[in-house]
Amino acid sequence: MKTAVGTSLLIIALNSAVGFMGYLDQVSISWGLTLSFTLAAGLGTVLGSQLSKSIEASKLQKGFGYFVLAVAVFVLVQR
């Protein structure tokens, strides 16, 4: 499971980087916002890595499922 998640995240990161580079000369970018999101993602990655060492995978999967459900409800309510 960890290898599959890691591989998936690597592919997503590479795909995002290539897409980002493709639009660099076509749109204006708020570098402050971009860097703050990058920093938050990096911190989240480190925190998630530490949590995965101390919490069972099944509990992490269940918690992630609830998190995705909560975000979906939030998005639906905002519409």
Could you explain the architecture of this structure?
With 79 residues, the chain is an all-alpha fold. The protein has one domain (2-78). It contains three helices and no strands. The chain has helices at 2-23, 31-54, 57-78. The chain is extended. The termini are far apart.
Overall number of structural domains: 1
Q: Secondary-structure element order, as H and E?
A: HHH
- What coarse outline follows from CA principal-axis ratios? extended
SS field, number of helical segments: 3
Number of strands: 0
Strand content: under 5%
Give a short summary of the structure:
This protein has helices at 2-23, 31-54, 57-78. It has 79 residues and is an all-alpha fold.
What's the layout of helices and strands?
Elements: H1 2-23, H2 31-54, H3 57-78
Descriptive terms for the model:
3 helices, about 80 residues, extended
